[in-house]
Amino acid sequence: MTNTQGLFGGGRPVAFPTLPTGDVIATYPTYEQAQSAVDKLAESEGFPVQAAAIVGNDMKSVERVTGRLSWGRAAGAGAASGLWLGLLFGLVTTIFTPANANPGVGYLFGAVLLGLAFGIVFGLISYAVSRNRRDFSSVMQVVASTYSLVVNPEVANRARNILGVTEAFTPPPVPPADPTGGTLA
User: Residues 160, 165, 166, 167: is their CA dihedral positive or negative?
Assistant: First the structure.
């Protein structure tokens, strides 16, 4: 399949995401441990680290509640986002205004204050609209239960030796991905 909507009219193949194939060298309970194993492989002289991949297994969506939402927090969050937006608009306008018509620092300060005011108003309005349905703030994440280190079969034994993993504790290899969306087993 090709993408016919290129910037200059040329098409290029669409790359669909696929699972990496190869041997599972080890499975770790945290991403940091899997990353540390890949770092160890990368530090090894001549190991083709591009032959390794970290695969998250059993993905879960986690929403961590960060606190109770109130009028003050809604106004504060709106003020922070409005401040950054006002600063961005003020800087862009100041930078791209001709030197002989440059409004100066006062314009930048005014843009920041205007952004701050609009941010507070929009923060309060959005809190008022969702008040009785969602009175808390949160952060959404996608996390995995375990992380598998997968490497190409050609370098699997070398990776096991570098990491000190015995083959007896190695889970079965990851089955190759089926182009139709399933797995071939």
Answer: negative
d(CA 69, CA 71): 7
Q: Which amino acid is at 50?
A: Q
129, containing H or E segment: helix 105-129
CB atoms within 10 A of CB 58: 8
Q: Is the pTM of this model over 0.85?
A: no
CA dist 98 and 17 (Å) reads 46
Tell me the C-alpha distance between 79 and 118, whole Å: 8
Q: What angle do CA 14, 17, 21 make, to 5 degrees?
A: 125
- In the block, which residue shows the tokens 């970290």? 54
Asked if residue 117 lies in contact with residue 146, where contact means CB atoms within 8 angstroms, the answer is no
pLDDT in tens, the chain (185 residues): 445 555 565 566 777 888 888 999 999 999 999 999 999 999 988 899 999 999 999 999 999 998 888 889 889 999 999 999 999 988 888 888 777 776 777 888 889 999 999 999 999 998 888 877 877 888 999 999 999 999 999 999 999 999 998 764 445 555 565 556 555 54
